Amino acid sequence: MSDTKTKKILVVDDEPDVTDLLKYTLKSKGFDVEAINNPMSSIGFARTFLPDLIILDVMMPELNGIQICRMLRADPTLKKVPVIFLTAKAEENDRIQGLESGADDYVSKPFSTKELVLRVQSILRRTSEGKPVELKMLSAGDIAMDVVRHEVSLHGQPLVLTATEFKLLQLLMERRGRVQTREHLLINVWNYETEIETRTVDTHVRRLREKLGDQANWIETIRGVGYRMAEQRAVNV
């Protein structure tokens, strides 16, 4: 059964022209959209609005998007809300910094509204309940995943993951022992069917490994190909 609840989107950008354009575009696609131009008010507004997704400009005065994203990820109420960055920066390191701060995706300015809508729909589709799950519990070493409850534990303690990190870990655990190419991960985790930089995958895997701590080596890098969840845990030398 599909999720019929109207999805709520919060747009945070200090440029009114941008927020007006995005409000009009996203509302025309059936979303419930709110937009604010004052980054200092973004966290408080988000706590009240409780969006299903946040579109966040990176370059803003007083409080930039990366700082706001880190605050979102530290907030108990908002930590799992997907974030898409809008960035005028073209340098790879800037995009990576954005992803490492907890963002799920980014779109570079000037952007295509059609592309942005597709990115929004893609993220919301994979964060919805979607199709029934056959495997309810997955585990590898001291990593345990309850797919139905959308929960992960590490050494018996809850582990907070973003929606993208959860989906990435779930796919690797479900296909344990099988190599997943970067292109395959982009299609199945990000729902991208067009060519996109595979560095996005590497950034998310690195961030996921950091959260897994001493269990990180369950995720193996297959050089030049992609990643896999090991059959047996690798031993650090």
If you had to describe this structure to a student in words, what would you say it looks like?
This protein has 237 residues and is an alpha/beta fold. The protein folds into two domains: 8-127, Response regulator (Rossmann fold), CATH 3.40.50.2300; 137-229, Arc Repressor Mutant, subunit A (Orthogonal Bundle), CATH 1.10.10. It has helices at 16-28, 42-49, 65-74, 92-100, 113-127, 163-174, 182-189, 199-212, and strands spanning 8-12, 32-36, 53-57, 83-87, 105-108, 137-140, 143-146, 151-154, 157-159, 180-181, 219-222, 226-229. The strands form three sheets. It has a five-stranded parallel beta sheet with strand order 2-1-3-4-5, with helices on both faces. It has a four-stranded antiparallel beta sheet with strand order 6-7-8-9, with helices on one face. Helix 3 links the parallel strand 3 and strand 4 (83-87). Helix 6 (163-174) crosses helix 8. The longest helix has 15 residues, at 113-127. It is globular. It starts with 7 loop residues before the first strand and ends in an 8-residue tail after the last strand. The model is unreliable at 130-135 (pLDDT under 50).
